[in-house]
């Protein structure tokens, strides 16, 4: 059944808010035939992920989605059948009033941040009564039964596996980014916030017996990288060699290309929410830098994910991976943690694919949202 959907995205910082909502919007349109309008208050963030989009336009259509700039001075529009506020962003008051006044009922959902914590299952799908007499439902993505699942496009894992099995496609993709892999080089990608732990990791990689090519899309980690390299600047395309470590700065690529970059790599350092999940779908070992929160609650979220992810690993591999993630997020001890992990490299690779397959066997988030709406009707 075709319904109309509105997704509201307020860009707090970085690209995760835009990344998640743009992905969801496209999937609802492409796979579920829904009419989707994405409201975004900072379209420039979206343009980084989808370079065809034009940040100056108040309204445009891309990949089957109507993209609207969410203006500060809200002008009344007819609400859609389903209104999704992403990450508890504040809807315009006038729109909420219009939702309450609409002849046909409106399903109002708050799409929450991804968390592996146990309480998520208990809160997923719960309604909360709003002053306007409307109900708002909490929709929680998650890794376990009873949650809203994870964003995963139809056929994603099959496409990813086919790409990883096709050496020519991988080479061509990397070459288009100006990258050619030397024989025996391990390929690692690095997408991170500023991190004091970087030095220790880079030193371990430089001293390693295995050569590494580290691909770094432009972004917040470049300052730390530049300091370690002791170079005056790091432009896109810059390449530096230190011992066994070759480092190359890449442009920030479109969202679909970033997937392929992750698929190419033997190991991916990712951050936030969306790249974290995409690295899991890549079926390769990963290192997660969680979005830090002032009160430190992000540590609980990190441990909750590790509790799930480490299940099934040998005690030595589990301990090594946990130590590495803790070191990265604490910003110290990366050298020793990375070196310790090398003994478990093969096991971690197999485990990443197993984890991916297990998560991919569950219903995806877009399908779960459509089902939620159907059940609510
Ligand atoms: O950019 P982020 O740090 O976003 C964060 C998180 O979402 C966090 O939970 C939230 O609270 C905060 O923003 C406000 O990391 P994330 O979530 O991985 O989003 C990055 C997006 O950028 C993701 O969709 C992948 C995309 N990307 C590209 O499209 N091309 C690139 O080259 C790179 C490096 C990333």
Automatic annotation (TrEMBL):
Catalysis: reaction(s): dTDP-beta-L-rhamnose + L-arginyl-[protein] = N(omega)-(alpha-L-rhamnosyl)-L-arginyl-[protein] + dTDP + H(+)
Kindly state which keywords UniProt assigns to this record, in alphabetical order: Glycosyltransferase, Transferase
Top-rank lineage group of the source organism? Bacteria
**Which GO MF terms does the UniProt record name?**
protein-arginine rhamnosyltransferase activity
Query: What family does the Swiss-Prot or TrEMBL record give for this protein?
Result: Belongs to the glycosyltransferase 104 family.
Its job = Protein-arginine rhamnosyltransferase that catalyzes the transfer of a single rhamnose to elongation factor P (EF-P) on 'Lys-32', a modification required for EF-P-dependent rescue of polyproline stalled ribosomes.
Name of the protein described by the UniProt record: Protein-arginine rhamnosyltransferase
């Amino acid at each position: 059944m075709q319904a109309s959907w509105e997704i509201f995205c307020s860009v707090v910082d970085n690209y995760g808010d835009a990344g998640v909502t743009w992905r969801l919007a496209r999937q609802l349109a492409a796979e579920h035939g829904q009419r989707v309008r994405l409201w975004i208050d900072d379209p420039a963030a979206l343009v980084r992920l989808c370079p065809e989009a034009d940040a100056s336009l108040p309204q445009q259509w891309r990949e089957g989605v109507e993209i609207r700039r969410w203006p500060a001075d809200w002008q009344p529009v007819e609400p859609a059948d389903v209104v999704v506020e992403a990450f508890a962003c504040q809807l315009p008051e006038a729109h909420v009033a219009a939702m309450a006044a609409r002849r046909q009922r409106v399903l109002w959902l708050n799409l929450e941040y991804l968390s592996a914590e146990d309480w998520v299952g208990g809160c997923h799908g719960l309604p909360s009564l709003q002053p306007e007499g409307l109900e708002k439902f909490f929709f929680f993505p998650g890794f376990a039964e009873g949650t809203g699942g994870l964003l995963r496009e139809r056929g994603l894992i099959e496409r990813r596996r086919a790409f990883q099995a096709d050496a020519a496609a991988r080479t061509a993709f990397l070459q288009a980014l100006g990258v050619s892999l030397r024989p025996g080089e391990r390929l690692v990608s690095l997408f991170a916030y500023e991190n004091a732990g970087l030095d220790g990791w880079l030193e371990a990689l430089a001293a390693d017996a295995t050569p590494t090519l580290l691909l770094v899309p432009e972004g917040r980690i470049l300052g730390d990288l530049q300091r370690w390299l002791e170079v005056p600047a790091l432009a896109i395309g810059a390449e530096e060699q230190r011992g066994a470590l070759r480092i190359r700065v890449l442009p920030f690529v479109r969202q679909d290309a970033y997937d392929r970059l992750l698929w190419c790599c033997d190991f991916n350092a990712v951050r936030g929410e969306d790249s974290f999940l995409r690295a899991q779908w890549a079926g390769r070992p990963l290192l997660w830098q969680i979005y830090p929160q002032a009160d430190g609650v992000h540590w609980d979220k990190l441990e909750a994910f590790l509790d799930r992810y480490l299940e099934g690993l040998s005690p030595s591999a589990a301990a090594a991976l946990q130590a590495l993630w803790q070191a990265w997020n604490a910003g110290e001890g990366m050298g020793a943690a990375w070196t310790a992990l090398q003994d478990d490299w093969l096991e971690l690779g197999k485990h990443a694919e197993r984890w991916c397959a297990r998560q991919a066997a569950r219903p995806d988030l877009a399908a779960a949202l459509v089902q939620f709406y159907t059940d609510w009707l």
